[in-house]
Q: What sequence folds into this?
C-alpha cells in the first residue's frame, strides 16, 4: 500500500505532465488538428462565431475548433494568467487595449507578412481599432470590431411617451438631451429615484466621456513624454464639472442607485429603469436576445463639451495568436478567415451588431440594413483615435478614473480635487510600471 | 528462571531488530510525505518571501531562477515601502484595505458573540430532541457554498425591491435607497455597505461558534452546578459564578479563531460588493487577488501584501496556541 | 428566588420556557427564510423575476430554469457536476489515506526527528492559504496542471489538520494489540491496515465528510487555476451565470440551488457527525 501510494503520486504526476506539456511534432496538413479559440461570453458574439467556425471546419475537415467563452472578469484573469504560462488557446478574441501588453511581453505572435502587412491593414481598417492591434510598428492581429462607447444612447419609446417627450429624439446639442432627460426622471413616493432620465454614471461611460470631453475642447490627456498623463488640465476639470452638474444641477440620475455595480446601464435600461441609457451599440444584440419583448432604438448623441465629435477608443476585440500555439499556420489561417475576410467580417459585425473595424463593411448597405442601430455612430467613426498606451488601461479606467469621478458626481469631491487625484494616481501608476 | 532469562535475551536482541525495522518503516513512509510538504508548502513559502523583494510579473520573462532577475529585478524592500508610504493607487487602496479588514473583524467578533452566546445558553437549556434539530438547522449556512450564499444575499439586499427593503417597508421604516452601493451612508464611521457584509457574514458563520459553545456548556460537570445550587445559589448566580468562568477559555479561543477566519474572508467581498462602494469594503485579500490576477499582474507587490497579512495572522495564531497551552481543569 | 428548582439548568429566570422557544424559532426563521426565498424564486418565470416589486411566491411555479440548465447543451452542467464530484471524492480518498497513515506513524513510532517532521507538517496549518496562493499558482503553472482538475487535487494530497486529528485519535488506541500482532509476524503496514484502520470508522467518516464539503464549496483556488468551461466546478458555474451581460436570474438561482442541494442531502443524513466534527476540530 505504501508502494501503491507512491506509485499513485508518481502516476498522477506523470499523467498530467504528459497531458500538459506534450510537444507534438508539426502536423502534416491532413492530420486532425484541434484549434482552441477563446472568446468573450456574450450571446451575440457566440452565435456569430459559431457559424463561422462551422464554415471553417467545413472547408478544413481536418480541423476541429474548440470554442471557449468566459465572462469579462474571468476572461481577463484567464488571459493574464494563462498567457505567461504558455497555456492559451491558439486563437484568442482579445479585448481592446490588451494586445500590446502581451505583445511587449513576448506572448503573442505578430502577423506574418504573407498573411497581411501593416500597410495593407491600414487601408483596410479604421485607425482606432487598428491602433489597438499595432505595437511598435508591428501588426499583431486583426480587429474584429470598433469599440465605441461614445456618441450614442439607447432610448425607450414607452418612457418618452409617458413623459410626453417627442420621439424619436433629434437632439441638436447636449442641453437638449438634458432637457428631455429631466422630464423623464421619476422619483418614487419616498423620494427615491425609480427612473433615471439619463444613465451615464457607469464605469466605461464616465471614462469614455472624461477622455472625450478633454479632446472635444482640443485638450490632450497625455503629458509631453507621451507616457505620463495630464489629467488636471482646465479641460479635464471642466469635463468633470460637467459630469457633476448633470447629476447635481440637472438631477437626471441618482449615481448612488445607478452605477456600474448597481443598476448596470444595460439591464437597467432593458427593465425600464432609465429612459436614455448611454452605452455602446454592442449591447443591442445582447438586449434583443435577453429581452425579446423590449422596444428600443439607438440614437446619436451630440458632443458633450465642444461643437465637434472627438473621442478615443480602446480599439476593440481582435483576433490574435498566442505564441504557445502548436499550429501557427492554421491559427493564422483561422484568424485571417475570421478577421480579414470581407464576407465573414460583414457576417460577424451584422450578426453580433458590433461596429465594423473594416471600412468597406461600414460602408456596405447590407451591414446598415442588418444593424440599423449602428446608423447612429457610423458617421463619426473617422473622428475616433486609438486611446494610446495607457500603461494599464483597466487600472486606469476602473480603479482610478471611474471611482474618482463617481465620487465627485456623488458629491464628495470638487472637480479640481477629482482631477488632481486622478492625475496623481495615474502618474504614480506609470512610474510604478517603469 | 533460566527460561525467562532466555526469553528476555531473545526479546532484547529481537527488540533491537524490531526497533530498527520500525524506524526504517517510519522513515521510508514519511520521506515521500515530507518531500511533498517541501514542494507544496515550504518551497512556496520561501518563494513568496523572496518574490516580495522583486518587481515580478510573469508577463515579463525574467532571467534568473523562477524568472526572478533580469526583466524582473530585485528591488529590496521597495514593495513594502510602496505599500506603507506610496502614492500609487494599489498602495493607497491597500492601506484602506488593511483598515477595512480590521474594521470588519472588529465588527464580526462582537456581533457573532452577541448572537451565539445567548443562543447557545438558551439552546442548551431545552430538551435533547429539539436541541439537536435547532442546532442542525443553525449550522446549515456554514456548510453551504459561499457562492450560493452570496447569491442569496444579493437578493436580500437588492435596492428597492429586495427582501430587506420590503421588510423595512412592511413595518413602516424607510429602507436605505441602496444597501450595498451608497458610499455616503455612514453610521458612527462605519459604512452601510460594510455593515451589510458583516451581517451577511455573521449569518453565514454563526453556526460554528454556536455548536462549540453548546458543546462547551454541555461539558461543564453537572456536579459543579448542583453543588452551587445546594449552596443556595439561584439560577442567575449559578450562571454567572459557575458557567461563565468555565466558559471563558472557550470564548477566548473561539474569538481568536473567529478573528483569524474573518481576516481571510474573500468570496462575499469579491462577489457581493466587489470592494465597493469607494473601496469601503476592499479587504487585504481582495487587494492581493486583484493585484496578482486582475490588474497589472504585479505578483511581487501582491506577495508583499500577503506577507503583511501573514504576519498579522501569525501573531494571532501564536496567541491561539498560548491559550490552548494554558490547561484549565474543571 | 426560584420557586421550583429546574432539573435542567435553564434560562427560565429571564425568559420562561415559551420565551426561549420564541427566540429559537425566530432564529430558525432567520436562518431558513433566505434559503426558502431563493428556492421559491427559482420557480418563477423570467418575467416574474424581473417584476418590481416581486411577489414572494411564484404565481405559476415552473421548472423551466432547471430544464434549461439541465438540457441546454451550451451549459456543460453534467460535466461541471462530474468535476465537482470527481474532485471532491478523490480528495476525500487521498486525504483519508494520507491522514490516517501519517497520523499512525506520528502516534505510534519513536524515531529521531519526529518532532521536527511533525512541526513541518503543522506549518501548513499556520500558513494561511493566501500567502502561498501566488507561488502555488506559479508552481501549478510549472507543473503543467493549469486548467486541469488535478490542479485541485495534487496540491491537496496532505492535509495537516487531518494528520493532526488522526494522530490524536490513534494515540489513544492501546499499543498491546500492535505488539501482539508483531509477535505474530505482522508487517508494520499490516498493523496499519489490519489493526488501526478498522478501528477508525467514526473519525475517518467525520474527516471525509468535512473534506468533501470544503472541496465542493471551494471557490478561490478553482477560480484561479481553471479556465475552460468544461473544467469548471459548480460554484464557478454559478458565478459564470451571475456575471453575464444579460443577467438571467432564473439560471443563477437554479444553479445556486443545484450547488446547495447535494451538500444538504449529505447533511440531512450525517448532520450529527458533521456538527460533532466541527466542534472537536476547533479544540484540537
A:
Amino acid at each position: 500500500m505504501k508502494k501503491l501510494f507512491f506509485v499513485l503520486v508518481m502516476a498522477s504526476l506523470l499523467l498530467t505532465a504528459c497531458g500538459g506539456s506534450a510537444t507534438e511534432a508539426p502536423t502534416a496538413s491532413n492530420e486532425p488538428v484541434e484549434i482552441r479559440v477563446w472568446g468573450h461570453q456574450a450571446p451575440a458574439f457566440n452565435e456569430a462565431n459559431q457559424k463561422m467556425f462551422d464554415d471553417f471546419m467545413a472547408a478544413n475537415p481536418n480541423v476541429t475548433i474548440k470554442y471557449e467563452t468566459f465572462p469579462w472578469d474571468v476572461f481577463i484573469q484567464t488571459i493574464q494568467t494563462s498567457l505567461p504560462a504558455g497555456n492559451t488557446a491558439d486563437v484568442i478574441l482579445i479585448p481592446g487595449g490588451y494586445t500590446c501588453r502581451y505583445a511587449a511581453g513576448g506572448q503573442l505572435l505578430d502577423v506574418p507578412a504573407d498573411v497581411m502587412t501593416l500597410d495593407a491593414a491600414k487601408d483596410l481598417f479604421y485607425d482606432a481599432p487598428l491602433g489597438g492591434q499595432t505595437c511598435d510598428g508591428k501588426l499583431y492581429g486583426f480587429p474584429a470590431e470598433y469599440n465605441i462607447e461614445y456618441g450614442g444612447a439607447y432610448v425607450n419609446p414607452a418612457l418618452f411617451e409617458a413623459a410626453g417627450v417627442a420621439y424619436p429624439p433629434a437632439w441638436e446639442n447636449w442641453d437638449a438631451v438634458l432637457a428631455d432627460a429631466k422630464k423623464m426622471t421619476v422619483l418614487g413616493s419616498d423620494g427615491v429615484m425609480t427612473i433615471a432620465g439619463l444613465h451615464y454614471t457607469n464605469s466605461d461611460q464616465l471614462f469614455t466621456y472624461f477622455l472625450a470631453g478633454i479632446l472635444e475642447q482640443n485638450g490632450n490627456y497625455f503629458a509631453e513624454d507621451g507616457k505620463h498623463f495630464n489629467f488636471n488640465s482646465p479641460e479635464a476639470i471642466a469635463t468633470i464639472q460637467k459630469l457633476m452638474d448633470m447629476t447635481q444641477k440637472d438631477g437626471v440620475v441618482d449615481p448612488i442607485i445607478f452605477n456600474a455595480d448597481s443598476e448596470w446601464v444595460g439591464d437597467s435600461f432593458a427593465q425600464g429603469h432609465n429612459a436614455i441609457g448611454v452605452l455602446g451599440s454592442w449591447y443591442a444584440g445582447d438586449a434583443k436576445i435577453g429581452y425579446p419583448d423590449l422596444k428600443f432604438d439607438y440614437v446619436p448623441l451630440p458632443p458633450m463639451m465642444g461643437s465637434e465629435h472627438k473621442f478615443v477608443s480602446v480599439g476593440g476585440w481582435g483576433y490574435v495568436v498566442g505564441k504557445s500555439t502548436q499550429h501557427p499556420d492554421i491559427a493564422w489561417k483561422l484568424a485571417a478567415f475570421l478577421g480579414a475576410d470581407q464576407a465573414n467580417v460583414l457576417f460577424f459585425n451584422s450578426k453580433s451588431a458590433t461596429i465594423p473595424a473594416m471600412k468597406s463593411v461600414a460602408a456596405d448597405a447590407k451591414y446598415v440594413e442588418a444593424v440599423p442601430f449602428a446608423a447612429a455612430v457610423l458617421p463619426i467613426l473617422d473622428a475616433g483615435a486609438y486611446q494610446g498606451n495607457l500603461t494599464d488601461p483597466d487600472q486606469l479606467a476602473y480603479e482610478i478614473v471611474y471611482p474618482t469621478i463617481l465620487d465627485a458626481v456623488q458629491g464628495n469631491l470638487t472637480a479640481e480635487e477629482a482631477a488632481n487625484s486622478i492625475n496623481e494616481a495615474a502618474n504614480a501608476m506609470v512610474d510604478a510600471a517603469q | 528462571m533460566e527460561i525467562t532469562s532466555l526469553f528476555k535475551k531473545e526479546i532484547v536482541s529481537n527488540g533491537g531488530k524490531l526497533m530498527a525495522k520500525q524506524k526504517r518503516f517510519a522513515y521510508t513512509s514519511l520521506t515521500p510525505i515530507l518531500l511533498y510538504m517541501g514542494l507544496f508548502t515550504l518551497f512556496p513559502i520561501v518563494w513568496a518571501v523572496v518574490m516580495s523583494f522583486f518587481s515580478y510579473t510573469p508577463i515579463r520573462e525574467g532571467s534568473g531562477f523562477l524568472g526572478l532577475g533580469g526583466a524582473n529585478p530585485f528591488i529590496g524592500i521597495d514593495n513594502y515601502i510602496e505599500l506603507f508610504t506610496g502614492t500609487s493607487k494599489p498602495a493607497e487602496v491597500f492601506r484602506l484595505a488593511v483598515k477595512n479588514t480590521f474594521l470588519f473583524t472588529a465588527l464580526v467578533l462582537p456581533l457573532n458573540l452577541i448572537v451565539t452566546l445567548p443562543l447557545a445558553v438558551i439552546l442548551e437549556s431545552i430538551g435533547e430532541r429539539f436541541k439537536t434539530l435547532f442546532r442542525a438547522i443553525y449550522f446549515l449556512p456554514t456548510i453551504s457554498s459561499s457562492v450560493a450564499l452570496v447569491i442569496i444575499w444579493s437578493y436580500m439586499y437588492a435596492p428597492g425591491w429586495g427582501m430587506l427593503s420590503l421588510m423595512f417597508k412592511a413595518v413602516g421604516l424607510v429602507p436605505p435607497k441602496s444597501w450595498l452601493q451608497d458610499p455616503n451612508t455612514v453610521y458612527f464611521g462605519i459604512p452601510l455597505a460594510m455593515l451589510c457584509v458583516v451581517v451577511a457574514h455573521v449569518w453565514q458563520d454563526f453556526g460554528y461558534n454556536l455548536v462549540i459553545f453548546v458543546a462547551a456548556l454541555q461539558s461543564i460537570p453537572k456536579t459543579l452546578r448542583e453543588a452551587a445550587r445546594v449552596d443556595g445559589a439561584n439560577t442567575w448566580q449559578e450562571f454567572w459564578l459557575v458557567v461563565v468562568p468555565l466558559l471563558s477559555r472557550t470564548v477566548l479561543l473561539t474569538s481568536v479563531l473567529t478573528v483569524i477566519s474573518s481576516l481571510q474572508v474573500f468570496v462575499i467581498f469579491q462577489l457581493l460588493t466587489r470592494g465597493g462602494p469607494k473601496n469601503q469594503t476592499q479587504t487585504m485579500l481582495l487587494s492581493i487577488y486583484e493585484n496578482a490576477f486582475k490588474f497589472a499582474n504585479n505578483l511581487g507587490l501582491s506577495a508583499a501584501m500577503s506577507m503583511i497579512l501573514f504576519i498579522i495572522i501569525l501573531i494571532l495564531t501564536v496567541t491561539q496556541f498560548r491559550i490552548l497551552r494554558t490547561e484549565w481543569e474543571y | 428566588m426560584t420557586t421550583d428548582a429546574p432539573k435542567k439548568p435553564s434560562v427560565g429566570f429571564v425568559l420562561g420556557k415559551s420565551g426561549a422557544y420564541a427566540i429559537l424559532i425566530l432564529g430558525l426563521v432567520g436562518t431558513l427564510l433566505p434559503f426558502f426565498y431563493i428556492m421559491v424564486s427559482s420557480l418563477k418565470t423570467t418575467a416574474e423575476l424581473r417584476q418590481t416589486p416581486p411577489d414572494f411566491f411564484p404565481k405559476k411555479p415552473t421548472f423551466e430554469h432547471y430544464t434549461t440548465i439541465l438540457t441546454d447543451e451550451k451549459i456543460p452542467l453534467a460535466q461541471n457536476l462530474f468535476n465537482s464530484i470527481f474532485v471532491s471524492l478523490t480528495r476525500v480518498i487521498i486525504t483519508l489515506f494520507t491522514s490516517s497513515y501519517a497520523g499512525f506513524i506520528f502516534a505510534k513510532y519513536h524515531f529521531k526527528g519526529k518532532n521536527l517532521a511533525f512541526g513541518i507538517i503543522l506549518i501548513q496549518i499556520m500558513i494561511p492559504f493566501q500567502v502561498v496562493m501566488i507561488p502555488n499558482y506559479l508552481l501549478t503553472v510549472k507543473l503543467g496542471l493549469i486548467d486541469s482538475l488535478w490542479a485541485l487535487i495534487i496540491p491537496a494530497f496532505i492535509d495537516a489538520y487531518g494528520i493532526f486529528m488522526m494522530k490524536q485519535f490513534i494515540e489513544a488506541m492501546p499499543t498491546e494489540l500492535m505488539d501482539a500482532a508483531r509477535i505474530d509476524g505482522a508487517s508494520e503496514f499490516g498493523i496499519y491496515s489490519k489493526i488501526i484502520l478498522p478501528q477508525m470508522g467514526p473519525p475517518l467518516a467525520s474527516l471525509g465528510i468535512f473534506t468533501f464539503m470544503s472541496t465542493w464549496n471551494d471557490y478561490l483556488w478553482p477560480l484561479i487555476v481553471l479556465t475552460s468551461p468544461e473544467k469548471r466546478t459548480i460554484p464557478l458555474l454559478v458565478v459564470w451565470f451571475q456575471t453575464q451581460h444579460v443577467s438571467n436570474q432564473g439560471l443563477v438561482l437554479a444553479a445556486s440551488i443545484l450547488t446547495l442541494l447535494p451538500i444538504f442531502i449529505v447533511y440531512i443524513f450525517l448532520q450529527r457527525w458533521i456538527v460533532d466534527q466541527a466542534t472537536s476540530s476547533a479544540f484540537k
About this structure: The beta strands of chain B are 186-187, 190-191. Residues 266 and 286 of chain B are 7 Å apart (CA to CA). Residues 2-51 of chain B form one domain.
